[in-house]
Amino acid sequence: SGVERVMLKSSKSIRTLGAILALPCAGIVSGDPVVDGSLDAIYGGPSVVQNTQTNFGDNDDPDIGVANGSELNMGDAMIRDGVLYIMLAGNLESNFNKVEVFIDARDGGQNMLRNDNPDVNYNGLNRMGPNPDDPKGVGLTFDEGFAPDLYVTLGGGLTKTKEGEVYVFYADAAELRTEGGGNGAYLGSGGAGPDAVLEGSNGISIAVNNSNVGGVSWGTGISCGDGVTTGIEIGVPLYLFDWDGPQNVEDAAICAFVNSSNHDYVSNQVLGGIGGGDNFGEPRLVDFNTVDGDQFFVAGGVAEPCPDVVGACCTGTDCSIGTEEDCLDLGGSYLGDSSSCDDEPCAEDCPSDITGDGAVDVTDLLQLIADWNCGL
Q1: For residue 67, how far is the Cα from the chain centroid?
Q2: Which pLDDT score is estimated for 22?
Q3: 42-73 residue pLDDT tens
Q4: Which of 87, 315, 331, 368 has its CA 20 to 30 A from that of 247?
């Protein structure tokens, strides 16, 4: 199965799968997750928690649709009653940036994206594969042992309607067959919240709730996405993996990241996290094998604890590095996650240093005399 291949082949994986949920008998029963953009308790706890600040904007708008930043704080997934449910807690900026979701759930797939996949979202999927004009070109490459079979992408923003400007997102999906080709489709559009869920003709359902204002902070350092319970939720019927006959899909691995609206600039928001770092940029140059840890998570997995989040703490003019809690206990002023003591951020301003050379001497006096009555 897909996850078993990941665990056997990946030299980077140090986690165990935890409890993988077996595929029950068909038929929806009470207790299944509701695809509405809010985390259901039945997921049982996150499979992965973000460990990196977002460098695609930190949302501070509680609106359920509009968001002024993108972040992937937590990932969870489970298989139940013939459906793979995926929860990506966080925000997707309402400027038509994309969240790219790659799913490995069967044999085959593409460890390095090809450029002859279905043309979906204005050929955005193939934009991440090798440049067709470069015979030696490479495409987006996943961790060793992770070879996705299915792709889902979505992005949204404000759109003019008869009722005025409202938040709308649009989504596409495509098969990722080992030999390329296959089927892809525009899934349709949805809105914000549980009353505007996209129900695609192929059975994929997607909901967006952009109301989160917590989670990771802005920057490129270490942060923690724990505790966020709203975001993007996706339901994928398992029969979509059956293009060459029925597949006994019992487990799945997921790689999700935020990309630009044209699928050509990858952010630092990847699940699993990258342990701090800047945006990746050009997707064709991204090779997750060069990044510590696993840039995917498994359904039913158990998240590793967040790393300690530290920053600069000013106690008077003294600067030290520690957690926000420790800083406040000292009566200090915390300067923010991943802030540093470089450039003496706690030093007092000296208004008498007119020349700005770090010393108060005769040159400052001469400058004062030279500027006397200046502007009067």
Answers
A1: 14
A2: 30
A3: 998 899 999 999 999 999 999 999 999 999 99
A4: 87
And the tokens for 21?
């949920």
What SS3 state is found at 50? coil
DSSP 364: H
| Rg, Å, the chain Cα set | 24
Classify residue 15 by burial, with Cβ atoms within 10 Å: 0-12, 13-18, 19+: middle
DSSP letter string, 88-120: EEEE--TBT-EEEEEEE-SS---SB--S-S---
Rounded CA-CA distance 101/253 in Å is 10
CA 106 – CA 108 distance, rounded (Å): 6
Angle at 3 between CA 184 and CA 42, to 5 degrees: 85
Burial of 361 (0-12, 13-18, 19+ CB in 10 A): exposed
List the end-to-end C-alpha distance of the chain, in Å, as a whole number.
81
DSSP character for 180?
S
Helix (H) or strand (E) holding 297: strand 297-298
Residue corresponding to tokens 């349709």? 188
- C-alpha triplet 265, 269, 274: angle, nearest 5°: 110
Query: CA angle 210-212-213, nearest 5°?
Result: 130
Confidence of residue 114 (pLDDT cuts 50, 70, 90): very high
* DSSP-assigned letters across all residues of 130-161: --TT-TT----BPPTT---SEEEEEEEEEEEE
- Output the six-digit token pair for 153: 């992408």
Distance CA 14, CA 294 (A): 9
Rounded distance between C-alpha atoms, residue 11 and residue 299, angstroms: 20
